[in-house]
Specification:
By secondary structure, this protein is an alpha+beta fold. About 15% of the residues lie in helices and about 40% in strands. It is globular, with a radius of gyration of 23 Å.
């Protein structure tokens, strides 16, 4: 069972949160528990999931001579398959004149009884370039990206717009950079008429904003300065302003709704063992959009029915990849560190002397056997997973992809839905190119993966936001036939 959707859900939730570990010593530990200075203002918001309080955010806004500095800390407790996971988030964004971003630090730590995962991103603007340093699992990687236009972060989005002055009826289009997935996209903010917002027994006037990012529409009420008073999302969580010093417990007493169970897609017409199936016909009901990766390879789409055929031995095909496609499917990046010494050594030990098919099979089995299955909220890093040896489908998939690429096997990541225990759950798994793309699943120990894996898109976590668009639409899958 997968928690891919929860990582994305949490990443979108943390669109207003941050966590910092590296950088200059005076910024390493943000303490927002004390009083603000005379020119700074401390605020707090509670985080609720389906009306249950699961955490809080504390935020400090400090005007600067030519801009502002926004700092945030947050704590959340999330329930995944009956297990609690703690998430800590801290960080800052600093701007210059006109709200233009200058530098930031952003990151995420998640903890369970067994493991601790940390990912941090340090960024600054250098002319028309974004300079990034990503640290995860003790591995550090730097990169520079050209910017065609100025970017905003989730952390400074509303503050930057507020610096221009709110005008009811105005629509803003900006370039948003999400540091947790290192991805960019257009964010659309529509300003509605002011309304009265009630919080903590008080009333305050705020502008109602409709914000659209990654296909998801959020309603937010902000005051003239850009402070969020309330926010409602289609993912089931809400933020509400509260008095600073309100409960700093991440969650109230009692069990919060289980995110995985709440986000599952019902399966109609099947209650058997998918692992033994060779062919499945799946009717997609109430899917709000077309996903680009549904047709192709093992999946044939006719109307709203997708026929998935499991690959058969000898698995080899006759297709070829272009030089560009092959390079992308063998590349290292900030989280899939195929060029890291530890990854290369492990890959060589497992696949040396084996042909491509046998190498892919061995890697699938090794990851399945050696990575403990546990719901994990992290932005997965291959080197960290190799060390921690625990995780869910994202961790299994990222580690497999890094090992396969280090072995010279072109590999990509598929995201979609997998059937288990009567429902379809959001899931990620690898596809290895063996003259054709062959789906494998190291989380479930399947080579190849069963046909009840419905691929919706391919690409890294920066592309997986698109799947979240299914939430809130009452989607179901009717299992027409299974062979």
């Amino acid at each position: 069972m997968s928690v891919s959707i929860v990582v994305l859900w949490a990443s979108l939730m943390t669109i207003h949160l941050a966590r910092s570990y590296g950088g200059r010593a005076d910024r390493r530990h943000l303490d927002l528990s004390g009083p603000s200075s005379a020119d700074a203002e401390l605020t707090q918001r509670g985080i609720f999931y389906r009306a249950a309080r699961i955490g809080f955010i504390r935020e400090r806004f400090t005007p600067l001579d030519d801009g502002f500095r926004a700092e945030q800390t947050g704590e959340l407790t999330l329930t995944l398959l009956g297990r609690e996971r703690q998430v800590s988030i801290r960080g800052f964004a600093e701007t210059g004149a006109g709200g233009r971003l200058r530098e930031f630090q952003y990151g995420l730590t998640t903890a369970s009884r067994r493991s601790l995962f940390e990912t941090t991103v340090d960024g600054r603007i250098d002319g028309n370039e974004l300079v990034l340093t990503i640290t995860s699992g003790g591995s550090e990687r730097s990169e520079r990206r050209s910017l065609d236009e100025p970017i905003v972060l989730p952390l400074n989005l509303y503050y930057s717009l507020a610096s221009r002055g709110w005008t009811a009826g105005e629509t803003y289009r900006l370039r948003l950079f999400d540091p947790m997935t290192l991805s960019e996209g257009e964010v659309l903010v529509e300003v509605k008429e002011p309304e009265i917002v009630r919080w903590g027994g008080r009333e305050e006037e705020a502008y109602r904003l409709t914000t659209t990012f990654a296909g998801l529409e959020t309603t937010t009420w902000v005051n003239e300065r850009g402070e969020i008073l309330q926010e409602e999302t289609p993912l089931g969580w809400t933020l509400i302003k509260e008095a600073p010093g309100s409960s700093l417990q991440a969650r109230e007493t009692g069990t919060a709704p289980d995110i995985l169970i709440q986000s599952a897609v019902p399966a109609i017409g099947f209650a058997g063992d998918a692992a033994q199936a060779q062919v499945a016909e799946l009717k997609l009901v109430n899917f709000p959009r077309e996903f680009r990766a549904v047709p192709g390879g093992r999946q044939d789409k006719q109307g709203d029915v997708v026929r998935v055929t499991r690959e058969r031995a000898p698995y080899r095909g006759t297709s070829t990849l272009s030089a560009e496609e092959r390079a992308a499917a063998l590349a290292s990046d900030a989280f899939i560190q195929a060029d890291a010494p530890a990854i290369r050594a492990q890959a060589s030990a497992l696949t040396e002397g084996r042909d491509e098919v046998e190498g892919a099979r061995v890697l699938t089995q090794w990851v399945y056997d050696n990575i403990a299955k546990s719901p994990t909220l992290s932005i997965p890093s291959a080197t960290e997973i190799l060390e921690q040896r625990v995780g869910d489908c994202n961790e299994h998939t990222v580690l497999f992809t890094a090992l396969a690429r280090a072995s010279g096997l072109p590999t990509r990541i598929a995201t979609g839905l997998v059937y288990t225990s009567g429902q379809f759950y959001y899931h990620a798994w690898p596809e290895v190119f063996l003259g054709q793309w062959v789906a494998v699943d190291p989380t479930l120990g399947q080579f190849p993966a069963d046909p009840m894996h419905l691929r919706l898109l391919t690409g890294g976590i920066e592309n997986q936001y698109e799947v979240l668009g299914l939430l809130g639409h009452g989607v179901t899958i009717e299992v027409v036939e299974v062979q």
